[in-house]
Amino acid sequence: MDYKIIILGSSYLTELVVEHLAGFYNLVGYVPSRSPAFPGNISLPVLDSFDVEHDIKLSIQWDRKLVDIENAYNVHTGLLPDYGGLDILAHTLVNGDREQGITFHKMVENFDAGPIISKTTYPVFAADTSFDLYGRLSCILPGFVHSSIELVRLLADDQISNCYAYPPRMYHRGPFELCERFEAFQAHLVDRTLP
Fold it and tell me: Does residue 87 sit within a domain?
């Protein structure tokens, strides 16, 4: 519990990670996203600055550029370098990929371009929708983030800086139609029961 973490983000996925990490680390507060796609209910103090003592800043679906990137890490809900940017799940389906995943990386000045510390994947099947992928992502995300933080604690800063950084292929928001199952999933995020 001695490891102090500031959380950046306030989405449903952020909430899942916060709930998991709360039993292992001292989560000192969070800086909310400006407009999370699926808002979460984060039970931490809201911070308006980084002037509180912390060991790392952890971004989970945070939608702003961070100026102070010292000891800052990002949980990217796509496989880097192939899926930098936004709307990863929709692009995965449009591109016909057979797997997607999560990337944990050190933050640098450019988005999604820092040294990659860890990755994990999950399968994508031909009949999948964004709903299916979001469900798989939410199942593996909390444990993945926890193990990635432990890896950061084991590695020296110079070792992390030497991890390979790939230039990301960036995707941007676009008009994607969501299936009815995904819209139903959005409606059930509050009580966490899947349709």
Answer: yes
- Token digits of residue 68: 């102070």
Q: What is the pLDDT of residue 170?
A: 78
Give a yes or no: residue 145 inside a domain: yes
pLDDT of residue 37: 78
Residue 166 lies in a domain: yes
Q: What is the pLDDT of residue 58?
A: 98
C-alpha span between 173 and 194 (Å, rounded): 26
The two tokens of residue 106 are 């050190």
CB atoms within 10 A of CB 94: 12
Q: Is residue 173 one of the residues assigned to a domain? A: yes
Q: What are phi and psi of 149, to 5 degrees?
A: -65, -40
pLDDT of amino acid 194: 45
pLDDT at residue 195, rounded to an integer: 43
What CATH number should be reported for the domain holding residue 96? 3.40.50.12230
Average pLDDT, the chain: 88
Number of folded domains in the chain? 1
| β-pair type (99-106, 116-123) | antiparallel
* Radius of gyration for the alpha carbons in the chain, expressed in angstroms and rounded: 16
- CA distances 51 to 47, 69, 186, Å, are 9, 14, 34
**Spans of the chain below 70 pLDDT:** 1, 172-195
